[in-house]
Amino acid sequence: MFLSEERNAALACIPDVVAVLEKTSLIELERGDSKQLATLFRTVGAPGLSIAKALGGGGLSAVNLAQVHTWVGAHCPSLAVMMTMHHHTVAGMMAASRFFPDIQGVLGLVARDNLLVASGFAEGRAHANILESTLSVEKTAAGYLVSGSKKPCTMTHHFDAITFGVNYVDPQGQTHIGIGLGLAGDPNIQRNKFWSVPHLQAADSHEVIFNKLLVPEAMMYFSKAVDHQLDDVQQGTGEHLFAIWFQLLASASYLGMASALASKALACNKGSQDDRAMLLIDLQGATMAIRGLADAIDQNRFLRADLARAQATRFAVQEAINRISTRAFEILGGMAFMSSEEVAYLLVATRVLAFHPTSRLASVPFLCEQLS
User: Fold this and answer.
1) Helices (H) and strands (E) in the chain — how many of each?
2) Contacts for 46 with CB less than 8 Å, ≥ 6 apart
3) Which of 13, 82, 170, 210 is spaced 20 to 30 A from 41 at the CA atom?
4) 263 pLDDT exceeds 80?
5) What value does the CA radius of gyration of the chain take, rounded to a whole number of Å?
6) Is this structure's pTM higher than 0.85?
């Protein structure tokens, strides 16, 4: 059965989501209200899946979480994007608790109350490290005043909490890398419409503005092991945690979208046997590449070389997705394009992976340095 392992992984941890997605058409979900997907995610989508069991979460492995993302991506691309932004943030925070130990309290609340966490990190900005921030931060007696914006920010109108990276320079001139947390109801968090294309609009990706958001000391978490205290191999590890998780879950989600197209092409029994074989080869290769990256994460491999391998895996999977979706589209033919909105929708949706940071061009020097 196509995507059987992925479906089994999803059934094991989010059975109610599987039931809803299997009885509702992809286009109906994608054209529907984003609130519907956010509510589904919050109520039966287990937002605490990637949080340790000791903190009340599901303790799901990276391998299984990637499988869940692939299955969801094949049935509802916008929900897969929502889940990617939430889970890469939460899983990154879980892994980064070594550097930010105080953050475990927030993770416990996410797991207990099924909170949706939006990503305000710099992964939305090309050529930027994930904790590199353009937000301005001012220390006051009451905490920190944060100003700036993030766009696009998935779940703009539906998150319960939003995390963001900050670079705070203290009066002595020392830079402190930190993670801040804002709550959805704060009046100093504003929202502007940004996403104007029809594809993936149900992911609710618009602009979030921090207008002198007051973040109390208890909701600002600074690293206890900054880069200058680490050796050359370890430097940047705090950033790498989030970036590596993002490459895994984004790749898995978009592979799911391509898999949906491939499934349609294989089911129609058109095209040559060679065409169908190449579809299966690319699908299997991309799946195993993602599995290898997930295995590395489960082994807590988050050093510079591991980030390079994660980026290389993402770009390899991205190319495979492009080949899969193009070949499947050609096999299905013009009549499918004219008669099925879903086919054309999926073709465009699979291409959006290329727009997620980091760009291949920006990664070239780093990849050559680490992998050659």
Assistant:
1) 12, 8
2) 13, 14, 58, 114
3) 210
4) yes
5) 20
6) yes
